[in-house]
Every structure is written in structure tokens, then in C-alpha cells.
Write a structure and sequence with these properties.
With about 450 residues, the chain is an alpha/beta fold. It is built from 14 helices and 24 strands. It is about 30% helix and about 20% strand.
Length: about 450
């Protein structure tokens, strides 16, 4: 039994937010039934996106709706509020929130009071002041971006197939990915695989006509899988005629021309930006302590350092790594730690409410797996290095075991099975981005301009 009635506010509906709320539903089930505990989760979207599946969703191996987990269905004991936290005054235990109804009501932002705060807003793309980046590039952090990129790649193949202008054709078939981490390498590998397959259905587009370019500022890619596997990945990508450029930066993509620091210039209609992330801006709008990189200073028990009744984990938190040999090291901001931290976080909040001792988060990093396309991958797990089909299979098994709910596991497994029995789908549904365009045109109005069909528009 908890000491007194507690209102728990969870900011963020990603890995940490969802799994912490799930853990609290399990651990505080009697208290929730008696009304002694109230859990409110604020999220900008009504679902959690399982980001490791985004590359496969972009390639068409998984349906977009199976990459996300609906919060209301899974968190049936929580109050789900779709909105955005604007600021937090922890000294007063209040959070300022704008919701979908805020503008309609005209009453201003809503003030939410709480007793326990869980900050898990995740991270946002780290965009640099590169000319043309905001106008022409696309990120790869959301399911909307993944599906939009799939539609875009297929549409570029359609443009290349139908144009008589060699310059337009060359730009349409040039795809530049910036960032050699998981997101960039896996997205590039899966989409190149898909486009190579799709080319067989175009009478005048061959796989060798397409240029796939990976730009990485450091001297290696996929550092999480180790130097040897990183070099193997570069070799495998180059064997697929993918141009991997290490120690190279994107200097500009203005006017649809990717200009690299090594002097190369590529006219292109596709620039995918996956060059890192930064802490969510909401962290700077709180009165909680941050480190030099803008993340919350935390203790091994996942409390915010020096503050009571405040908790954090995942990308937003700088959590000490108690398993590291050297002092001062922090846990990596990745899904492997986030999932495990969420369980400890939920347990510790329950312990705190019941006046019990807190647990210390301790997890030794076991390794990483990455997919490079269908039946291709790399892995470095428990000191063992795998490549090719075994690594790809391990990648699928691991992430299938980690995606939330049995419902999602079954649906993803069914889709993988069907994908193995039938041919790939190569349909572009880009018109979904402008669903009212056809009706507005029929009604005599002016439909919104599709930037993909505008030679001066953004990609």
C-alpha cells in the first residue's frame, strides 16, 4: 500500500514512457483499483513507434500500423493525454501542457499538477545549419518519415522512367544518406534492396543506373558493432555499388545539389539526414539539472540527481554506468538500455511510494545487431561476431522478442512469413500525404501543391 495518494505524470510515449507505464500498471495494480494512484501519460502521438522496424517498414517488409503500438489499448489503466509539454516547474509540481483542443478552446495551455514526475521525451534529430538542409532533406525517426521516404524513392524511379531529360533522370536516381549509424546504414540497406528489386518492373531503369551514397563524418560506420564488423559492412555495401564516403561531411544541399567536403557534387532529389540526435527541447524548459550535453543528470537509481520525486531514463537521461571499469561513464542512449531502464524505473517508483529501498540500474552492454537488407546483416553479441544471414536472422529474432505486446509480435511474424512466400509490394501511396487534393480539385478549389511534382519544391 502506498503512503498517500500519488499522481504520476509521465512525459513521453516512447520506449521509456510506454514501458514505465506498463510496469507501473503491473506493480501498482491494487493501488490503481483503490484509486490511490493516478497515472497520466502525455505524448505528442497516440502510439509508440518501435524504431528498429522503421527500415523494414520503409522497404515494405512490415505494414506501418504494425510498427506502432497504440497507447490507449496497452495502457488501459492510465490517462492518455495527446499533447505537448511546454514547460515544467518541478518546484511547484506543475507542468504546462498544450493539447489538440487547446487552440479550439482558446483558453490557453492546461496546467497539470503531479506528485511524481517521469521525464522520458526521448530525442529529436540534430540538424546542422547546412544550406538547403531544412528545405530538401528528410529525417528517419518516425513512421511517417519512413513511409514517406519509401513513397518518395518509388516516385523518383517513376520520374526517371518517364523523363527524357538526362539531368532530371540522374538527379531522380541519386540517393544521398548522411550518417553512418544504425538509422542511416539500415535505412540505406533496406531501401537499396527494395529499389533494386523494383527496378525489374521498369523497362528502362536498371539497378546500376541508381547511385546510392552514404556520407559519414568519422572514419568508421556502425561503431556499436565493433571496428571489424564496421569494416566488413563498408566492404559489403561497396560490393553492392554503394558509394561509402568516410571522413566526409555534407556542406550543402541547396538547389537540389549535394555538395560534400571532399569536393564531390551530386545533383539529387533525395537527401536523408540521420546524422545524430540531440536531447528533446523540453528538458531546457524545466528547473531540473542538466549536464553539458543537455541531458538530465541522474543517479544509478534513475532519480534526477539532487531532486526528489523526479525520475528519468532513456535518451533524455545521463545515467551512470555502474558496470563500466572507468568512473564517470554513462549508459549509451539506445533501445537496449531504455527498455531495461524502464522496468527498473517503474519498480523504483513503486518502491518509493511504498517507502521501500530502491534498486540500482545495472546492465552490461551485450552487443549490437544491424540489418543491411534482406538476408544480410552484421552482429557483435557477447563477444561473438556474426555476418550475413545468421546476423540478419538474429536481428529479426531479437527485435521480434522486444516489440511490445503479443498482438504486435504475431502480426509482424505473419507479415514476415507472407513476405517470404510472395513477391515484394512496390506500390507508392504518396497521394496519402494530400488526401483532400482530388476532392478539392473536383469541387473547384485549388489543391495543395505536391512538392514531389514541383521541380522547385522540397523532397
Amino acid at each position: 500500500m502506498v503512503k498517500e495518494r500519488a499522481r504520476i505524470l509521465i512525459v513521453g510515449g516512447g520506449y521509456v514512457g510506454l514501458y514505465t507505464a506498463l510496469r507501473l500498471q503491473q506493480k501498482l495494480k491494487p493501488e490503481l483499483k483503490r484509486g490511490e494512484v493516478e497515472i497520466t501519460l502525455v505524448s505528442t502521438e497516440p502510439y509508440m513507434t518501435y524504431q528498429p522496424f522503421l527500415p523494414e517498414a520503409a522497404a515494405g517488409s512490415i505494414s506501418p500500423r504494425h510498427v506502432v503500438v497504440p497507447l490507449r489499448r496497452v495502457l488501459d489503466q492510465c490517462r492518455i493525454l495527446i499533447g505537448e509539454v511546454q514547460s515544467i516547474d518541478h518546484a511547484k509540481r506543475t507542468a504546462t501542457v498544450t493539447t489538440l483542443a487547446t487552440e479550439e478552446e482558446g483558453a490557453g495551455a492546461e496546467q497539470i499538477t503531479y506528485d511524481e514526475l517521469v521525464l522520458a521525451p526521448g530525442s529529436v534529430s540534430r540538424a546542422l545549419p547546412i544550406p538547403g538542409l531544412a528545405d530538401y532533406a528528410i529525417g528517419f525517426k518516425t513512421v511517417e518519415e519512413a513511409i514517406g521516404l519509401r513513397n518518395h524513392v518509388i516516385e523518383q524511379m517513376d520520374i526517371a522512367s518517364s523523363t527524357r531529360d538526362p539531368a532530371i533522370r540522374d538527379a531522380a536516381l541519386t540517393f544521398v544518406f548522411v550518417g553512418g549509424g544504425y538509422a542511416g546504414v539500415e535505412a540505406l540497406g533496406e531501401l537499396e534492396d527494395m529499389a533494386r528489386y523494383a527496378a525489374r518492373y521498369y523497362h528502362n531503369v536498371r539497378p546500376e543506373d541508381m547511385k546510392w551514397i552514404l556520407v559519414e563524418a568519422s572514419n568508421r560506420i556502425l561503431p556499436e558493432v565493433g571496428e571489424e564488423m564496421g569494416k566488413y559492412t563498408v566492404t559489403q555495401l561497396r560490393r553492392r555499388n554503394i558509394d561509402v564516403r568516410l571522413e566526409t561531411r555534407l556542406d550543402s544541399c541547396a538547389d537540389r545539389v549535394a555538395v560534400l567536403s571532399d569536393g564531390a557534387r551530386f545533383p539529387t532529389r533525395t537527401v536523408v539526414w540521420t546524422a545524430g540526435v540531440k536531447p528533446h527541447p523540453i528538458l531546457a524548459a524545466t528547473d531540473l539539472p542538466l549536464n553539458e550535453r543537455g541531458r538530465l543528470k541522474c543517479t544509478p537509481e534513475l532519480t534526477v540527481d539532487g531532486v526528489t520525486h523526479a525520475w528519468a531514463a532513456g535518451d533524455a537521461a545521463a545515467v551512470p554506468d555502474v558496470t563500466a571499469a572507468e568512473s564517470g561513464k554513462e549508459t549509451a542512449p539506445n533501445a537496449q538500455h531504455a527498455l531495461r531502464q524502464a522496468r527498473v524505473l517503474g519498480d523504483n517508483i513503486a518502491h518509493s511510494l511504498r517507502d521501500e529501498a530502491l534498486e540500482t540500474y545495472s546492465h552490461k552492454y551485450v552487443g549490437s545487431v544491424a540489418s543491411l537488407g534482406l538476408h544480410k546483416g552484421v552482429a557483435h553479441v557477447y563477444g561473438r561476431k556474426l555476418k550475413g544471414y545468421p546476423a540478419w536472422f538474429m536481428h529479426r529474432v531479437y527485435h521480434l522478442s522486444r516489440v511490445p505486446t503479443f498482438n504486435r509480435k504475431a502480426r509482424v511474424l505473419a507479415e514476415w512469413t507472407l513476405a517470404g512466400l510472395f513477391k515484394r509490394e512496390i506500390v507508392s501511396l504518396g497521394s496519402l500525404e494530400h488526401p483532400r487534393a482530388e476532392f478539392e480539385l473536383a469541387a473547384g478549389g485549388k489543391p495543395p501543391l505536391d512538392p514531389k511534382l514541383d521541380p522547385k519544391g522540397s523532397s
